[in-house]
Amino acid sequence: MEELILNFGSYLSKEKQLSANTLESYNRDIRQYTQYLVENQIDLFSNSNKTTIITYMIYLQKLGKATSTISRNLASIRSFYQYLLLNKKVEADPTANMESPKTEKKLPSILSLKEIDTLLNQPQEDSPKGIRDKAMLELLYATGIRVSELISLNVDDINISMGYIRCYNNSKERIIPIGSVALKALKEYMEAHKEQLNGGTEDSPLFMNVQGKRLTRQGFWKIIKSYTKKANIQKKITPHTLRHSFATHLIQNGADLKSVQEMLGHSDISTTQVYMNLSKNKIKEVYNKTHPRA
Predict the structure, then answer these.
(1) Catalytic residue (one of 11, 243, 275, 293)
(2) Which residue in 14, 56, 206, 231 has its CB near the most CB atoms, within 10 A?
(3) What whole-number distance in Å separates Cα of residue 13 and Cα of residue 5?
(4) Residue 243 catalytic?
């Protein structure tokens, strides 16, 4: 069983080219499922059936797992059995025709314009670190790019004179304009760090840590967590919150859904439509607070 799990991981990495985070989720889900099988005296994947899977889903439910977690587990197990079937390790896929548990779509958390201003004004621009942090936060909110895309930016992905960045995600290129405030912060950052930035090659990272290496997701997470605390914002803020806020504020101010979809890099417009729902909720909230007969 262990060999099959390792081969499956290798298959996902090389053939499907999944991200490290996704691979980790698949691996964790399959190993937990395998442990459950062993504890129930099932020592071969070929000895499992649909009842086994259903019983496992009920087991996860009794453990108090969220519906979204159970649904993700089923997706991981389904992919695994499809791999086993493809390689003739099982005669049938026990997950075939099984429906995932219905999950409620949670609307993402966003910041108000006042909260955005408060958060983005936290970095003190009297130090190289403060100038860097200011540029990163302003750029995130101005473009709506993902944190993974932000830390992947190279110096030559920035066009200061034309006012845009070039961003890549899964080999797809997006050209995103930069607003005047973010452009100013970026100019100041590049001027303050010009020796460090000009000393590299074309693929030199735009944003670096104190060791002069490319900033990591974990590093940026610590940065935004620190400024959230300083800003005394009580909402739970993640690096993705600025992306959600960017999209919602654009739609609230009249941007069309198709343009927002292109800027966010969504392949399916239905993913972008969640921000339309957020905008409608905001309008309803304002109406209920201000209309005399609401």
Answers:
(1) 243
(2) 206
(3) 12
(4) yes
Q: Is 287 a residue of the active site?
A: yes
Record the tokens describing residue 54, joined without a space: 């259903």
**What's the CA gap between 46 and 48, in Å, rounded?**
6
In this structure, what token pair is assigned to residue 113? 């314009």
Report, in angstroms and rounded to the nearest whole number, the Rg of the chain calculated over CA atoms.
23
Provide the pLDDT for residue 291: 44
What pLDDT shows up at residue 110? 84
Phi/psi at 168 (nearest 5 deg)?
-120, 140
Whether 25 contacts 79, CB under 8 Å: no
The CATH architecture annotation of domain 2-86 reads Orthogonal Bundle (1.10)
Q: pLDDT tens digits, residue range 10-58?
A: 888 777 777 777 888 888 999 999 999 999 998 888 888 999 999 999 9
Q: ∠ at Cα 267 (215, 252), nearest 5°?
A: 80
- pLDDT tens digits, one per residue of 86-128: 888 888 888 888 887 765 556 667 888 999 999 999 999 889 9
Span(s) in the chain for CATH 1.10.443.10 = 113-289
Which of the residue ranges 183-187, 256-260, 267-271 would you say has the lowest mean pLDDT? 267-271
Within the chain, all domains assigned CATH 1.10.150.130 are found at 2-86
Q: Extract the tokens encoding 136.
A: 């990163």
Distance, CA of 68 to CA of 61 (rounded, Å): 11
Q: Is the pTM of this model over 0.85?
A: no
